[in-house]
Amino acid sequence: MIELDDRTRAFQRQARAWAQELKPLALELDQDPDAIHRHLDVAIVSYLTRMTVPPEFNPDPVVIDGHRFYGTGTLERVVFAEEAAVGDAGMLLASPGPVMSGVLVDAMGDERQKKWFYSRVMEKPTWTFFALTEPDRGSDAAAMDTTLTPDGDHFVLRGAKRYIGNAARADLGIVFARTRPGPLGVTAVLIDTSAAGFTAEPLETIGLRGLRLTAVTLDDVRVPAEQVLGRHLRATQRGMWSAVQGLNRLRPGVAAFGLGIARAAYEYVLDNRRTPNTSERHRLDRLGLRLTELRQLIWRAAIAVDDNEPAAGYLASAAKARASRLAEEATLEALGHFGPGARLDHPLLDKLARDARGVEFMEGTGNIQKLNLFTGLVQGGLRRD
After folding, report:
1. Rounded distance, CA 27 to CA 349, Å?
2. pLDDT score at 333
3. How many C-alpha atoms does 139 have within 13 Å on its Cβ side?
4. In whole angstroms, what is the distance from residue 240 CA to residue 188 CA?
5. Nearest to 48 by CA among 73, 80, 25
6. Which of 53, 292, 306, 342 could be 338's S-S partner, Cβ–Cβ 3.0 to 4.6 Å?
């Protein structure tokens, strides 16, 4: 069993307290995604505006029990994400901040790029985006159509991205594009959304409405050469390598979103189903055990990522696949405790069930995660035990 140290437990307690502020806001944000603008002073949202900003660019981190927290460690992020998602995953994902893009900038950016990106983020609450997924191709980078073409001292972006969180409200973000065929031909660039040719249209969604999923069109967007990430790195460390490394660091956090949603449904039943029968009690006990087992897997994956273990990517895939499944099963089981009218009588549970379905499509579907796990088993990168 993995146990948290005193520092991380202190952060967990604080995140749990912060998350209590989100629960009363969950249905408001579900009905109006722009409600996030009215709640930027909520403590957990304020923390998210700076989460993943490295110490050299963040002179005022959150301090808890004498410890400074920047959100740059994977274990720290997953502990936070679970507690925040118990409060409301929608508010967590709707908040401004650098989280996904910041992870990649930290991994691939040169000093000038980091200063440009993080200074913008620290100046005011700033939404960012991470654009990999494309229409009809999902996140299959091998089939990517978006192109990045040299044009004098600039590059030109042409293409489209789909299901990109927060892009319609973002000031800056990262776009993946292809410079040539093959896995080394994929690269990432920093984008200012005020650039000519960049358009972002919000999409209607059933769940996770606060995330404001968006369709992005890139119509001859000019990108200065200095905004191409990884130019100072070897070719094998750019493009798809960077995308994979970035996703490996992010997937345990997505798994923690799913765990938080599942736990929120479990706790809702405990708080509101006062007299469960023996069968229902047994089902709840079993669900509680599954939550604990998943938490251990997520923590194990996060530690592997932080320690750069060879199996880190496979463990992250295992955690994400299991979390998306448990989120759906837990929320549907919770609805079953309240009868056929549960979705109408318990709107928060209905929202949790809709949000849970969205976890499946974040950072790769279950099929993609299983393919990754199978590759690890076949190639010997992951032990069966």
Report:
1. 10
2. 96
3. 18
4. 9
5. 80
6. 342
Return the pLDDT at 139. Answer: 66
Using the predicted structure, report yes or no on whether residue 384 has a pLDDT greater than 80: no
Is residue 376 within 8 A of residue 382, CB to CB? The reply is yes
* DSSP three-state, residue 129: strand
Q: Write 138-145 long-range contacts (CB < 8 A, 24+).
A: 138/365, 139/363, 139/364, 139/368, 141/176, 141/183, 141/186, 141/240, 141/243, 142/183, 144/176, 144/177, 144/178, 144/186, 145/178
Specify the DSSP class assigned to residue 189.
E
Q: Are 148 and 177 in contact (CB under 8 A)?
A: yes
Hey, CA dihedral for 180, 185, 188, 189, is it positive or negative?
A: negative
Task: Give the amino acid at 130.
Answer: F
Which 3 state secondary structure label does DSSP give 179?
coil
CA angle (129 as vertex; 151, 152 as ends), nearest 5 = 5
What is the Cα–Cα distance from 174 to 72, expressed in whole angstroms? 18
What's phi and psi for 146, nearest 5 deg? -60, 130
Residue 308's Cβ-count burial label (10 Å; 0-12, 13-18, 19+) is: exposed
H/E run at residue 79: helix 74-94
Kindly report the pTM of this predicted structure.
Answer: 0.93
CA atoms 383, 302, 296, 87: torsion sign: negative
Q: Is the dihedral of CA 357, 361, 363, 365 positive or negative?
A: positive
pLDDT digits over 224-269, tens only?
999 999 888 777 676 666 667 777 888 999 999 999 999 999 999 9
State both tokens at 1.
Answer: 């069993």
Q: Which residues contact 328 (CB under 8 A, 6 or more apart)?
A: 353, 356, 357, 359, 360
pLDDT score of 296: 98
CA atoms of 383 and 378, how far apart (whole Å):
10
* Matching residue, tokens 């209590």: 20
Cα–Cα distance, 132 to 142 (Å, whole number): 11
